[in-house]
């Protein structure tokens, strides 16, 4: 992720006000909930050919009690009522506290208050007028879980103003991140997974309250990218999430991706390391957690390494590893869509690598795979290994050297990107859908559209998160914080929104052809998928040789030991 691939939230209001969106300061709406009245904002759109023209948005609604003091490192508790007051839902509340240097790195110029008190959600819904009698119409609901490696991120940078024009209610949620969401002592004192339980609490809130906002509680689709995508996959597996959603979309990550979960033993080590740094280390879990609860929130960010806080197998939210749950058919029976961008692996540029040249190809790819191994642990090598074996690296290098152009630096960079894309995202998505398709509808896509106005070098291709603006309709809103957009970009955004919202409505992205294309189901016999680019295209057998290679490495999900 670079400055181009993350939004500068401070510019949103300006960008929107200069586009096709028109809003007056007096346009407000009040609805009644079980907690009390909520006042939101009405936005009217012009220039988009959709039956719905007006959207009501309600920002910063608390879905759980503030997880501070004695509630730190505990499951969330339901929010308290605010009646008889009317809750002001016209602005975003604080985002969840996260490493400040990450904010600077990922989101230059981003500025928004952070707090441990952050369990809020935002609702964007087709506006209805109770006096006109249209208030009884209920729309399918889409709940967005943001990414960021379980350590950073916020839905504030993904405003959903335009999405309801496609006939859905959009909910975006925040959840505890980093140590606040995933500290664990490995026992009942602090079992971990609080961030995942936050997501479940938000889904419970949706089930109980979304009808007041025009949403159909029996038609809820969860979707998210990267850590949000793996979160979606984990909810598909979790017995605690059963009945809280009815369809799922996993973007750029699934429950079988190497970054989806961590080892419980490793998580305990990180917790003990944090306790030691803060003077809280004891041989009693309860004393350690009590001490950690006494520390200021900022102190808990003392561990500088990234991606160390993740969900774990706890016997509750996650009763077993994703691999075992998938193999045994223990998952929630809902339609599932999964997809990725063509060059997810280009995420490593320029964050981790300055260049890839013929003389450094092996060194760089070895660095990247070892980086992933040591960050995420459960990948393609045996659990006791701390480095990728040379024999395995030889096989990877052979697979991804762009023969006969082994001295072409640009093609080598693409080969590097493909190796990371396939190993971390594409093959896990194939495996997840292969399991899922035996019992439920499954759909796979590749997002391959690269805007002609993309300012980055062409060899970077279509990177991780390049698809996000299209999912939230930025080209259609002329939201040019990332880049300028042209007519082709607007068409792609309309395609993506139509496909995603169709899936939310029908469990099928193309119940009728969309832009003359029908999206076939994915199954073990027919590895069909949809290629999303200038013209939607049905495709089959995505990089079959490479998928077979990684499948062999993953087969036992125990890893290569040679």
Automatic annotation (TrEMBL):
PROSITE patterns: CARBOXYLESTERASE_B_2. SUPFAM superfamilies: alpha/beta-Hydrolases. It comes from the Eukaryota. Keywords: Signal. InterPro entries: AB_hydrolase_fold, CarbesteraseB, Carboxylesterase_B_CS, Neuroligin/BSAL. Residues 1-24 form the signal peptide. Residues 29-550 form the Carboxylesterase type B domain. CDD domains: Esterase_lipase. The keyword Cytoplasm does not apply. The keyword Plastid does not apply. Belongs to the type-B carboxylesterase/lipase family. This is Neuroligin-4, X-linked. It comes from Stylophora pistillata. The gene is NLGN4X.
């Amino acid at each position: 992720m670079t400055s181009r691939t993350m939004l500068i939230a401070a510019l949103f209001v300006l960008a929107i006000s200069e586009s096709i969106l028109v809003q007056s300061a007096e346009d407000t709406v009040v609805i009644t909930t079980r907690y009390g009245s909520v006042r939101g904002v009405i936005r009217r759109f012009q220039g988009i050919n959709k039956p719905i023209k007006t959207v009501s948005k309600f920002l910063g609604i608390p879905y759980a009690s503030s997880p501070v003091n004695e509630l730190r490192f505990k499951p969330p508790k339901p929010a308290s009522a605010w009646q008889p007051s009317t809750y002001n839902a016209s602005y975003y509340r604080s985002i969840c506290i996260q490493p400040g240097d990450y904010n600077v790195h990922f989101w230059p110029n981003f500025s928004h208050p952070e707090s441990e008190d952050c369990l809020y959600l935002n609702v964007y819904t087709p506006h209805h007028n109770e006096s006109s009698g249209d208030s009884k119409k209920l729309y399918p609901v889409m709940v967005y879980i943001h990414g960021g490696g379980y350590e950073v991120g916020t839905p504030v940078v993904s405003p959903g103003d335009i999405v309801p024009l496609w006939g859905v209610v959009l909910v975006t949620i925040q959840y505890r991140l980093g140590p606040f969401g995933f500290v664990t002592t490995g026992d009942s004192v602090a079992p971990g997974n609080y961030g995942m339980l936050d997501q479940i609490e938000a889904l419970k809130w949706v089930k109980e309250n979304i009808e007041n906002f025009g949403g159909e509680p029996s038609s809820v689709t969860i979707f998210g990218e990267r850590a949000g995508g793996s979160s979606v996959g984990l909810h598909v597996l979790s017995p605690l999430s059963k009945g809280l959603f009815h369809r799922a979309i996993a973007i750029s990550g699934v429950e079988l991706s190497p970054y989806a979960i961590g080892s419980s033993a490793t998580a305990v080590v990180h917790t003990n390391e944090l306790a030691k740094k803060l003077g809280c280390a004891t041989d009693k879990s309860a004393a350690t957690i009590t001490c950690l609860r006494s520390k200021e929130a900022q102190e808990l960010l003392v561990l500088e390494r990234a991606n160390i806080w993740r969900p774990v197998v706890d016997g509750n939210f996650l009763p077993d590893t994703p691999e075992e749950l998938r193999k045994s058919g223990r998952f929630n029976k809902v339609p599932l869509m999964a997809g990725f961008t063509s060059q997810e692996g280009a995420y490593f540029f320029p964050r981790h690598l300055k260049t890839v040249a013929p003389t450094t190809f092996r060194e760089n790819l070895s660095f990247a795979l070892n980086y992933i191994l040591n960050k995420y642990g459960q990948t393609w090598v045996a659990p006791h290994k701390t480095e990728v074996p040379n024999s395995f690296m030889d096989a990877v290098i052979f697979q991804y050297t762009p023969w006969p152009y082994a001295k072409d630096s640009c093609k080598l960079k693409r080969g590097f990107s493909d190796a990371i894309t396939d190993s971390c995202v594409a093959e896990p998505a194939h495996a997840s859908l292969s399991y899922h398709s035996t019992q439920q509808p499954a759909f796979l896509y590749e997002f391959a559209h690269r805007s002609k106005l993309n300012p980055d070098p062409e060899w970077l291709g279509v990177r991780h998160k390049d698809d996000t603006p299209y999912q939230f309709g930025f080209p259609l809103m002329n939201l040019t914080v990332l880049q300028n957009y042209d007519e082709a970009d607007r068409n792609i955004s309309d395609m993506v929104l139509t496909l995603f919202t169709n899936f939310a409505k029908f469990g099928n992205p193309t119940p009728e052809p969309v832009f003359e294309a029908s999206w076939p189901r994915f199954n073990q016999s027919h590895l069909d998928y949809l290629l999303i680019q200038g013209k939607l295209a049905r495709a089959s057998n995505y990089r079959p040789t490479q998928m077979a290679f990684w499948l062999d490495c993953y087969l036992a999900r125990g890893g290569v030991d040679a």
